[in-house]
Amino acid sequence: MSGSTFTHFDKEGKAVMVDVSDKKETTRSATAMGRVLLQPETMKLIQEGGFKKGDVLSVARLAGIMGAKKTPELIPLCHPLMLTSVKVDFELHPDENAIDVIGTCKLTGQTGVEMEALTAVSVAALTIYDMCKAVDKGIQITDVRLVKKTGGKSGTYEAK
Predict the structure, then answer these.
(1) Is 17 within any annotated ligand binding site?
(2) Average per-residue pLDDT for the chain
(3) Cα gap 72→89, rounded to integer Å
(4) CA–CA separation, 10 and 15 (whole Å)
(5) pLDDT confidence of residue 12
(6) 77 is in an annotated binding site
(7) Is residue 78 marked as binding?
(8) 136-159 burial, b for 16+ CB within 10 Å, e for fewer?
(9) 134-157 pLDDT, tens per residue?
(10) 5: how many CB neighbours lie within 10 A of its CB?
(11) Sheet-wide strand order for 85-93
């Protein structure tokens, strides 16, 4: 390791990718979650598969997985990682006109996958917006956050 702390700045204050070369490889996972708020009619169309563009949740799932794999191209200074698993799921809450988007990423490596899980959730939620915006311009994407992380020196984190 080229220093005693992990930082995105070198000795001159210039932005750099954190050097993780001396970190031990461990099995790591991260789960993120976000919520998409819709109008009741939009929620019903999603549940019934009534969108001409196709199955909204299937397309959003694929987009989320692809987004996780592209994280280092989207977020400056993120390490390119060899993800071993990316999973995007949805929990529908028709009574609240809401869809929870849950993304989990895993690997064995020297750095965590929190950014990949957050990116998977964000891209999946944005895809729901994109596919539904013609009928619902008021869609809201809220509460995107890390809910669980395991592995690495800092161990396990679970949101309260």
Answers:
(1) no
(2) 92
(3) 22
(4) 7
(5) 81
(6) yes
(7) yes
(8) beebebeebebbbbbbbeeeeeee
(9) 999 999 999 999 999 999 888 999
(10) 6
(11) 85-93, 98-109, 26-37, 140-150, 157-158
| Structure tokens, 104 | 């989990």
Backbone phi, psi, residue 102, to 5°:
-120, 125
Predicted confidence at residue 8, as pLDDT, reads 66
In the block, tokens 């929190």 appear at 114
Residue 4 above 70 pLDDT? no
User: For the segment 40-70, what is each residue's pLDDT rounded down to a tens digit?
Assistant: 999 999 999 988 888 999 999 999 999 999 9
Query: Using one digit for the tens of pLDDT, what is the confidence trace for 87-112?
Result: 999 999 999 999 999 999 999 999 98
Q: Is 116 annotated as a binding residue?
A: yes
The residues carrying an active-site annotation are: 130
Can you give the chain as a three-state secondary structure string? CCCCCCCCECCCCCECCCCCCCCCCEEEEEEEEEEEECCHHHHHHHHHCCCCCCCHHHHHHHHHHHHHHCHHHHCCCCCCCCCCEEEEEEEEEHHHCEEEEEEEEEEEECCCCHHHHHHHHHHHHHHHHHHHCCCCCCCEEEEEEEEEEECCCCCCEECC
Specify which residues 146 forms β-bridges with.
Answer: 32
- Can you give the pTM of this predicted structure? 0.89
